[in-house]
Design goal:
alpha/beta; Aminopeptidase; OB fold (Dihydrolipoamide Acetyltransferase, E2P); 11-stranded mixed beta sheet; 3-stranded antiparallel beta sheet; 7 helices; about 25% helix; globular
Length: about 300
Amino acid sequence: MHFQSIAFSGLVPGARLIVLGAVHGNETCGTQAIRRIVSEIEAGALNIVAGLVSFVPVANPLAYARGQRMGDRNLNRNLAPTDAPTEFEDRIANWLCPLLAAHDALLDLHSFHTAGEPFAMLGPENNAGALEPFSRAAEETALALRLGVRRFVDGWLDTYAAGVTQRSGSAADVRYGVGTTEYMRARGGIALTLECGQHDDPAAPGVAYRAIRGALAHLGISDEGAPAPPAAAEALRLYSVVDRAHADDALARPWASFDPVRAGETVGTRYDGTPVVAGRDGYVVFPNPGAAPGQEWFYLAGRVSRV
């Protein structure tokens, strides 16, 4: 196994963007899009005129080689350098975290299990709280609006921390919810996850490709005109994560991400017959009918007016 990054610098100073593919090894749309963009830059079809862009086509080469989500553990749940690496993802973190910290902005390209419309994951609104303090929400949102999608979701880390607390019965160690974007924001940057569609959707690499070009143009790294924001943007906020507790827990139907759900509607049923219901009107997000017991089964989200 080895790690690869490919960097292009413009002739004048500017923004420093890093683009990641295959943080999860079975999510390959970003890898395909990155390789397409790199070939265009090398052929002179796309000009890098300012700043710096670095591409990591395969962030987790072990998971990618296996064609599965993770190698030894989920890279995007506990990302930090360590002096005593034991798992393969620890070795990735020791290489990747300094690389992230050398940039101003991150675009992390992902896909999801079931059918659904592509969307971008935003960080928190500006705040001085203990969980994820942040002061660059306007810049991050402006970049998100140039990625070619119309739907935006936030609330990841506080929802995940609440889920960890619920799961363990004690206060969450929030480090376990820290992935690439949270690490980047903690180092002063802006960071976006783009969920490009279902894993095997043939359109997903094109979504990732257009997002990269949009980000390069918006940040002034390429010489293309920046794309216009979507005419009708939609903002949602995660408010709950539900874990699968048993292998016989079953979803009520084959949900797709952003299927609407009504307050009190059954989303799934526990192996003992207990229904799991939505707490309010909203949407099902990231349903995973094949989740292992103890892992995230689905999220619930509601509308907000952020964008």
